Amino acid sequence: MEVIKFNTYVAKYERMAELQAFDKTKAGVKGLVDAGIIKVPRMFVQPLKVEDSRSHNNNKFIKFPIIDLDGIMEDPIKRKNIVQEVGHASESWGFFQVINHGIPSHVMDAMKDGVTRFFEQDTEVKRQWYTRDLTKEFTFNSNFDLFRAPVTNWRDTFRATIAPIPPKPEQLPSVCRDILLEYTNQVMTLGDTLFELVSEAIGLEPNHLKDMGCAEGLLAIGQYYPACPQPELTLGTSKHADNDFLTVLLQDNIGGLQVLHQNHWVDVPPTPGALVVNIGDLLQASSVTFSISVSET
């Protein structure tokens, strides 16, 4: 029996080489868009189509929790009700939105504008901040886990360590420096309030979490999602959990943020003036410990 062999050439995909070449540009995803690409590079393509990885549950009747903090300092009855709402949302969702939180809308708008200004600078200007050295007070790059994650996300990011040791002004980009410091200062104040509410919600004294040092550090992260030529193939941010105590998230009006609730992905509707609060992994672990401690006393 004669056997006929066909030699078929299959181009080998060198993912690491593509990642290294991408990182070497120091231009991020925005650099790809500015270069005029019309196809998403392979390293960004999700294993499944994006629409297939999302829940098709009709979630329009699921009401994402919104908590009004108005009167929290002046009215004991309101505060008690707010504490109960925070406790319920934290336990059942792990997320909630807060309104009337004390941070003016014009400050939040200016912060969003500051993030946009940074990422839409000329590439040559941004390159001076591009690094993967996390000891730096301010870093700009694309995908902190670029060389470890199985799929690359379609986003660029800056990170600024604001507390416990405040950065010097020259350690932050001038294009967003002032508003970054102003906004994060106000978020620190809000964070104190949130930690008080969570402490009370789990049956502890208001200052318990703060006295533990939970509110001492603050890492500011700005995410930028450039227009994508094939959005059905990739994601801006993959499924993840936050490994912190609390995340206070300011989203724009475009939407796209989702949370996993009862095994379904639920849209977080952009609400004017609202901030999204995420109970992080560290706080969840601490809450379990506190609950055991309280029950034993």
Automatic annotation (TrEMBL):
<dbReference type="GO" id="GO:0016706">
    <property type="term" value="F:2-oxoglutarate-dependent dioxygenase activity"/>
</dbReference>
<keyword id="KW-0847">Vitamin C</keyword>
<dbReference type="InterPro" id="IPR027443">
    <property type="entry name" value="IPNS-like_sf"/>
</dbReference>
<dbReference type="InterPro" id="IPR026992">
    <property type="entry name" value="DIOX_N"/>
</dbReference>
<dbReference type="GO" id="GO:0031418">
    <property type="term" value="F:L-ascorbic acid binding"/>
</dbReference>
<protein>
    <submittedName>
        <fullName>Desacetoxyvindoline 4-hydroxylase</fullName>
    </submittedName>
</protein>
<dbReference type="GO" id="GO:0046872">
    <property type="term" value="F:metal ion binding"/>
</dbReference>
<dbReference type="InterPro" id="IPR005123">
    <property type="entry name" value="Oxoglu/Fe-dep_dioxygenase_dom"/>
</dbReference>
<dbReference type="Pfam" id="PF14226">
    <property type="entry name" value="DIOX_N"/>
</dbReference>
<dbReference type="Pfam" id="PF03171">
    <property type="entry name" value="2OG-FeII_Oxy"/>
</dbReference>
<keyword id="KW-0560">Oxidoreductase</keyword>
<dbReference type="InterPro" id="IPR044861">
    <property type="entry name" value="IPNS-like_FE2OG_OXY"/>
</dbReference>
<dbReference type="GO" id="GO:0002238">
    <property type="term" value="P:response to molecule of fungal origin"/>
</dbReference>
<keyword id="KW-0479">Metal-binding</keyword>
<keyword id="KW-0408">Iron</keyword>
<dbReference type="GO" id="GO:0009805">
    <property type="term" value="P:coumarin biosynthetic process"/>
</dbReference>
<feature type="domain" description="Fe2OG dioxygenase">
    <location>
        <begin position="214"/>
        <end position="297"/>
    </location>
</feature>
<comment type="similarity">
    <text>Belongs to the iron/ascorbate-dependent oxidoreductase family.</text>
</comment>
